[in-house]
Design goal:
single chain; about 150 residues; mainly alpha; 9 helices; globular
């Protein structure tokens, strides 16, 4: 079975292992705290738990992706794709990386993956509701599945 496109993108980004090793404790803590216990209100706007989790986790993923030496080449590839080229290339790549982080956390955080099981499920649920900031078509192109689709 061929590798899903999101996995291929993540692998070809070539995020240095030293980056992951150096930031692993911070990544674990950020993921653990990404989904808050309640929403909040700021300047008259109400932010749900999902809103907060999406913002926190996408910021975390982008901080890792921005250190990838092949980011420019991957962005060019996304722009040429007939489906994914409709979206901002950095959003597609960052979303693919985040999806990888929450579906295969042991790759990113090693032995800490077990303690992240519940927070990652909550993060995935928030992103599933908004098609991972893309669309069902783009998710299919990338090989990304919603949580309930993966369970079946």
């Amino acid at each position: 079975m061929p590798e899903p496109m999101y996995q291929s993108l993540v692998g070809r980004l070539q995020v240095p292992e030293a980056v992951l090793t150096a930031h692993r404790p911070q990544i674990v803590e950020e993921l653990k705290g990404a989904y808050p216990t309640e929403g909040l209100s700021h300047e008259g706007r109400i932010y749900t738990q999902d809103d907060i989790a999406i913002e926190r986790s996408i910021n975390l993923a982008s901080s890792v992706v921005l250190q990838a030496p092949n980011l420019g080449a991957m962005m060019d590839e996304i722009r040429r794709d007939p489906i994914l080229g409709k979206y901002d290339a950095t959003t597609v790549i960052t979303t693919a990386y985040l999806y990888h982080m929450v579906t295969a956390p042991q790759v990113i955080v090693g032995s800490s993956a077990e303690e992240l099981q519940d927070p990652l499920r909550q993060i995935r649920g928030a992103y599933d509701k908004v098609h991972w900031l893309l669309s069902p078509e783009a998710m299919q192109q990338l090989g990304m599945k919603k949580l309930e689709e993966r369970v079946q």
